[in-house]
Design a protein that fits this description.
The protein is α+β, with helices and mostly antiparallel strands and about 400 residues long. The strands form 6 sheets. Strands 13-12-11-14 form a 4-stranded antiparallel beta sheet, with helices on one face. A two-stranded antiparallel sheet has the order 1-4. A two-stranded antiparallel sheet has the order 2-3.
């Protein structure tokens, strides 16, 4: 029995030592510097990812390390400014404030951006949201892309580029289907079908009436080509007609509810970026994701009328009912979902009556669905913080400007 106890104690002590040694080894790995070649190789993957997917990667592999985007960009700025190895360092990411830029930067300019980014991050242990340099300003999102393009070039060519052209890799909208394009293609295809059908009829008549064997053979070859063309066009027409039954297709009468307005910019890159990140498989799933995000991520703030608009509300993450509605409408419209403003006079659960603004989104098969994101009790299509039976709707608007 005594020997069994000794063996058990020995095993326990051994396990403790092993765990301690593994912990010590993990600490040593954490303190190991990053190799410049590993960071440059990572920049190749990041630049390609941003060009293909038009967003930031969540995690980046560099050698045997997995870095977040901020730590990776800081490490890359050190490598591009001359460091052979980089001490691993965790830095904080800024809130995204994407600007659309399209410009060519000389080596002097991009080196200035690299050094300023490195020095700012060194000093404050966080990446700058927007960085000023002698040529203007550049935001964090575009800085990640710029430095990654430079790193990719150096990794592939073994030297720094003479200059770098950068265009913000964020699309103009988050549409799944452009309904106007669908209609335009259907009209164009129908026109081509009519022309092709007319030619087929004329050639068939000529084949029957010609007595020249060589001419008949030539016409028969032409006829086969046109018939193939006709069948291809019919297939294309079926495809585009099918898109009109998609939940993403918006009828012409509702397309005014997709437009950009003074306080509802549907091409703001931050709105587009978020809308794409929240996109679901269907228009209903997407609307639900957008509604839930605004409801849970934007704090209610009491004031009258519009103060921030959609862009400012997204940046500040706060707003009254009007500004929260601006953001909800902008996210829906940039996703290709019609959205409109509703203004009414409502009795809230407190018993008080207030003028109120909320959004409605149009979902195929559901019609206009209420999307009041100003209270945590509300759900898509259902309001709990004011009484819908006694409250009244004053007006329904494409644009709200008060």
């Amino acid at each position: 029995m005594r020997q069994l106890i000794k063996a058990s104690v020995y095993l326990t002590v051994t396990l403790i030592l092993i765990v301690a040694m593994e912990g010590s080894h993990a600490i040593e790995n954490d303190s190991e510097p990053l190799n410049s070649s590993d960071v440059l190789q990572a920049s190749l993957r990041v630049a390609n990812f941003m060009e293909n997917y038009q967003r930031l990667p969540e995690n980046i592999s560099a050698g045997n390390r997995t870095l977040d985007c901020a730590s990776y960009t800081y490490a890359l700025s050190r490598v591009l400014s001359g460091s052979k190895t980089v001490e691993y360092r965790t830095v904080n990411s800024p809130a995204l404030n994407i600007r659309r830029i399209s410009l060519k930067l000389s080596s002097t300019r991009y080196n200035e951006i690299t050094v300023r980014f490195r020095d700012f991050t060194d000093k404050y242990s966080r990446c700058p949201s927007t960085l000023s340099y002698s040529g203007g300003k550049i935001d964090f999102y575009n800085t990640v892309y710029l430095l990654s393009k430079i790193g990719r070039y150096r990794y592939q060519k073994g030297r720094m580029p003479t200059d770098v052209y950068i265009r913000t890799p964020v699309p103009l909208n988050a549409y799944r289907i452009n309904s106007q394009t669908v209609d335009s293609r259907i009209r164009s295809i129908n026109s081509e079908i009519r022309k092709t059908s007319s030619l087929i009829k004329r050639i068939r008549i000529r084949i029957r009436t010609t007595g020249n064997i060589r001419t008949r053979t030539m016409l028969q070859n032409k006829l086969r080509s046109l018939e193939n063309r006709y069948n291809y066009l019919r297939g294309q027409l079926r495809y585009y007609e099918g898109l009109k039954n998609s939940p993403w297709y918006v009828p012409p009468s509702l397309r005014r509810y997709l437009s950009s307005t003074a306080y509802c910019s549907v091409t703001d890159p931050n709105v587009v970026y978020l809308a794409r990140e929240l996109s679901g498989n269907t228009s209903y799933a997407t609307a639900l994701n957008l509604f839930t995000w605004v409801r849970d991520s934007v704090d209610y703030s009491f004031y009258y009328r519009t103060r921030y608009g959609a862009s400012g509300t997204l940046r500040l993450r706060e707003g009254n009912c009007v500004d929260q509605t601006h953001l909800m409408v902008a996210l829906a419209r940039t996703s290709g979902i019609p959205a409109r403003y509703v203004r009414g006079y409502c009795r809230f659960i407190s018993g008080n009556w207030y003028s109120h603004v909320w959004a409605q989104v149009w979902i195929r098969g559901h019609g206009w669905v209420t999307a009041d994101a100003t209270h945590s009790l509300n759900r898509l299509g259902h309001v709990s913080n004011w009484n819908t039976t006694v409250s009244r709707v004053n007006e329904v608007l494409t644009e709200y400007r008060l």
